[in-house]
Amino acid sequence: MGRSPCCNGEAGVKKGPWTPEEDKLLVDYIQEKGHGSWRRLPKLAGLNRCGKSCRLRWTNYLRPDIKRGRFTDDEEKLIIHLHSLLGNKWSSIATKLPGRTDNEIKNYWNTHLRKKLLGMGIDPVTHRPRTDLSLLAGLPGLLAAASNFGGSGVATAAWDINALKLQVDAAKFQLLQGLVRALTTAAGPAPAPGMDNLMALLALSNGGLHGGADQNMLQQCQWNEMNNLPALTSSAPTSGMHNISGMLDGFSAGDGLSSTELGDHDGASGSNVTIYPMVADDQECKNNGGGGMSCEQTPASSPFDGLESLNLMDDLNTDGGWKDLLEQISWLNSSEL
DNA sequence: AATAGGCCCAACCGCTCTAGT
DNA sequence: TACTAGAGCGGTTGGGCCTAT
Description:
By secondary structure, this protein is an all-alpha fold. Helix 9 (170-186) packs antiparallel against helix 10 (195-209) and helix 9 crosses helix 13 (236-253). Helix content is 52%, strand content 0%. Residues 10-62, 63-113 form the Myb-like domain. It is found in: Nucleus.
């Protein structure tokens, strides 16, 4: 194996926070003579530190070209974009952000950006919609609330989609609808491949759910391109929701949306409805930079496989519809995917 | 006002990579 | 080619600070 770390075996070497005096010794020495061999620097500079500690202190804190202060929006976008391309290659990412250190970027990612992406339903590792089930937390309650609406319950043929829309706010309703379809498609005796599609829907729904969804963040999320999903542009979340909510409107109105938007459907009887994935807007792709990745329009079949030919009304206008759905959610929540 | 819990970030640890011999 | 020293990288930690109770 490799040799032992440089600081091991150097008894009496100081560790921990640097004092201003130590900083001055280090800065003065490097500015006068350069760092040369980091191993020998501490002794030459009169510091009781190991060379590695000196190097880190200099590169992460004392270097004169280090930029301090909050990360700008542009920097944030760039970090997310680069991370989608490079992963945790912090030093590589840092080379694209002048004045920022790998350590600083790494910390910022772990404390801010990672959580931000998670909150948007995007896996910060893969930059794809999350495939864990934490997003489902609270949904049984939502579903239960929805199922209580109308007194006699919704597990009847009297499902009133418009009334429910009044009861549950529109965004939650849209989220619910995505879940309904995905769960009835994906749930089964074993985790189904349709879960990715569920999460794709959730990501879109989440954007709508939070109203102020960070569109810029979504622009930066390259999960779509990296995984042959349709490009997600700044308009995609909204448009995606339009697509879903439009589908629902189609149910209640029985018309108004072309078959190319929603697929052939029959609002009165509750028949098949097809979700067609949103496709990229070329101009927006250009505006978003693209980072050298393709921004082509994607065939409308790839990302929502398994979500096509929706049978929402068939799924729900049955006595067992809600019961089954809740059982499926219960199973999903208790499963490890 | 006290304190517990969470957050943030500088610094450390352990490993890999690279260059020199 | 094999070995070693030094540098660099990414993951993790610990302590100070902030906030909620």
